[in-house]
What does this fold into?
Amino acid sequence: MKITFIRPSLNGTPSSDAMEPLVFAILAGLTPPEIELVLYDERLEPIPYEEPTDLVALTVETFTARRAYQIAAQFRQRGVAVVMGGYHPTFVPEEAQHYADAVVIGDAEGVWEQLVQDAKMGKLQPLYKNSVLGKNQISGHSLAGLKFDRRLFQGKKYLPINLVQHGRGCRFACDFCSISTFYGSQLQQRPVQEVVAEIESLNKNFVFLIDDNIFVNESQAEQLFRALIPLKIRC
Ligand code: B12
It folds into this structure.
């Protein structure tokens, strides 16, 4: 089985400042090794619609939704099933369902594994919902053991910046922020040692810590920053 990951651009045109779409390192890490994976990032390269594939998985933000729906239509016309996940499908799953065979609500962990299994058996479900969503997890190490497989990014002309996620969500519930709508008031974090080990394994010295609110758990933020000092990297 082959799965094609796609990161749409804003309007089908390339850009020179694309950063690695971290979600695909997560999905690759969750996918059984016998499944072939390819990534096309429309900000860097055209999408080969004719290339054979069994399933297309798109990550969709609100600002790429229109383009994602156009891409999905191209594949579905060719009989290829399309899955969508990310912020926009999570917020408006009924809308995304008009354009996709399956929609994932919330984070991929715990859901993607089942979806791949279903797709393999030809039994893709229309909706997958992450059960962690809404459980009001405040901090703790709920993201312990998270694996990132960045091999799909090799050879692509991304900016030489490593996106590293230490935590997701925020304990505040500001009504203007899509993070609180996505994660509720949950804050999930990874153990500091795991983040440090990941950064050490990366071959670049410039790191973008992409947490939604990195200071929200002050004591853990301090631990993280102190642990990063010996690495002599730029964040
Ligand atoms: C880093 C970042 C950027 C970087 C670019 C990153 C990149 N790779 O290109 C920069 C700083 C350039 C940027 C710019 C912008 N960003 Co930004 N960004 C982020 C940030 C902080 C992290 C993104 C990330 O890598 N997350 C980590 C990954 C793992 O999380 P994820 O993609 O959400 O994936 C998880 C789930 O959503 C789900 N999932 C996602 N896709 C899929 C697909 C499938 C198939 C499945 C199963 C699951 C799944 O599973 C994952 C976890 O397991 C997010 C906030 C956030 N917490 O994500 C905002 C965020 C995505 N950005 C946002 C916005 C609005 C923008 C801008 C439009 C801001 C502006 N006004 O200019 C621009 C657009 C730039 C552009 N033209 O592309 C919003 C999007 C809201 C929305 N409704 O879509 C967010 C959520 C921030 C916010 N507070 O609202 N951004």
About this structure: The pocket of cobalamin is lined by residues 10, 18-23, 26, 57, 59, 61-63, 83, 85-88, 104, 107-109, 112, 163, 165, 168, 177-179, 210, 212 (CB under 6 Å). The helical segments are 22-30, 65-77, 87-91, 93-97, 112-120, 178-183, 192-201, 218-228.
